[in-house]
Design brief:
By secondary structure, the chain is of the alpha+beta class. It contains 5 helices and 20 strands. The relative contact order is 0.17.
Length: 283
């Protein structure tokens, strides 16, 4: 089974082109669980599967978290898959990618830099505090696409100096909070300066912090733009894995267009020989 391993600002993925491999759909959750295990296999935050388009896209992207659960979309993953699509002749410099959450368009800026238009925010609750131990915690809530990819956006003063285990436990509690029936990716942020934030994301399906989260960054900047805390133009988000840039166009109190720009990295490519899989074609 051929694969690429890529990352976008440290958010890493295994890519399999199923238009060539012809694996059954039901095999992908198990593939993700085995292949994404760090130290035991290739290791990654998620598995992306490229399939033939169903409608007007150049190809279709299926996304699976490292725990085997299906994800609606992944922003950093979409940027990586656009590079794969361009370099493997599936699309040109402008491309359309079908995702579970809707169509995502991408553009190649240079060899490593890609820009995508994220799914539209379909749910935005700017004032959505959640209660923990009897104390309300300020929070906003955003879903991108339909079905929506859920994000809790939480201000956290001095985030860069936060104690790791305490922050992780807070992220875990919010990720499973009853205020979010679908669960949520939890995006903590602090504002560093004009149009400049620092962000950390506790990701649903990974169940830990990742080095970056593209849809989470887009959701956070969308909230801050609507709140008037950033301009929405070329807003920089620093994360453990690097920096991403977001443009959020506001029209009559809503986000009309949401763009994510950032680097991609092809880490390795080759053949998966993991013997724990047995025969993946038979699940």
């Amino acid at each position: 089974m051929k694969f690429w391993k890529m990352n976008g600002a440290g958010n890493d993925f295994i890519l399999i082109n199923n238009m060539e491999e012809h694996l059954p759909l039901e095999s992908f959750p198990r593939l993700a669980q085995i292949l994404c295990r760090r130290r035991m296999s290739v290791g990654a935050d998620g598995l992306m599967v490229i399939e033939a388009p169903l409608r007007d896209g150049d190809y279709r992207m299926l996304f699976y978290n490292s725990d085997g659960s299906a994800g609606e979309m992944c922003g950093n993953g979409a940027r990586c898959i656009c590079r794969y699509g361009y370099e493997n002749g599936l699309a040109g410099q402008e491309q359309a990618v079908e995702t579970t959450a809707g169509l995502v368009t991408g553009r190649r800026i240079d060899r490593r830099l890609y820009r995508i238009r994220l799914n539209d925010p379909t749910t935005v609750r700017l004032d959505h505090p959640v209660e923990l131990d009897g104390t309300p915690l300020p929070c906003s809530y955003v879903e991108l696409g339909n079905p929506g990819l859920p994000h809790a956006v939480v201000p956290y003063p001095h985030l860069r100096e936060a104690e790791e285990n305490s922050l992780r436990e807070l992220g875990r509690r919010l990720r499973h909070h009853p205020a979010f029936p679908k669960g949520a990716n939890v995006n903590f942020y602090e504002i560093l300066g004009p149009d400049h934030i620092y962000e950390r994301t506790f990701e649903r399906g990974v169940e830990d912090f990742t080095y970056a989260c593209g849809t989470g960054t887009g959701s956070t900047i969308a909230v801050l733009t609507l709140q008037g805390k950033v301009s929405g133009r070329n807003v920089r988000a620093d994360m453990a894995g690097g920096a991403l840039t977001v443009d959020a166009e506001q029209v009559q109190g809503r986000i009309a267009d949401l763009y994510l720009t950032g680097p991609t990295n092809v880490v390795c490519k080759g053949e998966i020989t993991d013997e724990e899989l047995g025969n993946p074609g038979t699940v």
